Amino acid sequence: MNAERAAGVVADAMDDREDDRLGGLRIGVDMDGVLSDFIAGWMALYARDFGRHLEVADVTSWDGMHELTHFRSMGEFWAWARGGGESVFRHLPPMPGAMACMERLAVEHRVVILSSKSDWAIPDSLAWLSEHRVPAREVHFLWRKSAVSCDVYLDDAPHHLRELRAARPDAVVCRRVHPWNDPLPGVVDIESWPRFEAVVARVARERSVAIG
What we know:
It is built from seven helices and six strands, in the order H-E-H-H-H-E-H-E-E-H-E-E-H.
């Protein structure tokens, strides 16, 4: 590649980088329990391995899934979920409507994946995102999600919701409503994807007015 062409490639890359920074919100989205149906996924795997069928409706507390199984602790549960090859995270079903919602939001906003995962779960989680063509501009695996700045967060884990609300008071923190989490002060409840899109649209309008 000659110097002139190389300079053009660099210039194009810089233009793309600048365009990538323009407009829209940063939307931090959790994976399990938000984009992927972790409960239905692990229950299907459990039924396959042990011949016992469980009901999603029976899960009413966070981090107490082993109580529905023969496992004596969450440590035993996670040892099984890790598997000997692909883990439970590789073939989780997507939440109904989740992928279509992400595609619509990504047209104007920056979708940022924020997921708390052990090292062994990361490759399968990345494969899942790729298989389902999630239009994420960023993917972060971390335990403290507030370390990544976003305008709107969507999560289902009670401890993450509390931490995000405390550490990011200027952001809009949203709870994906499930039986295993309860309403929290200052956190917006999300029962459906249309509801989440409406919240994002409202925040975008408010930010636009404030900037203008």
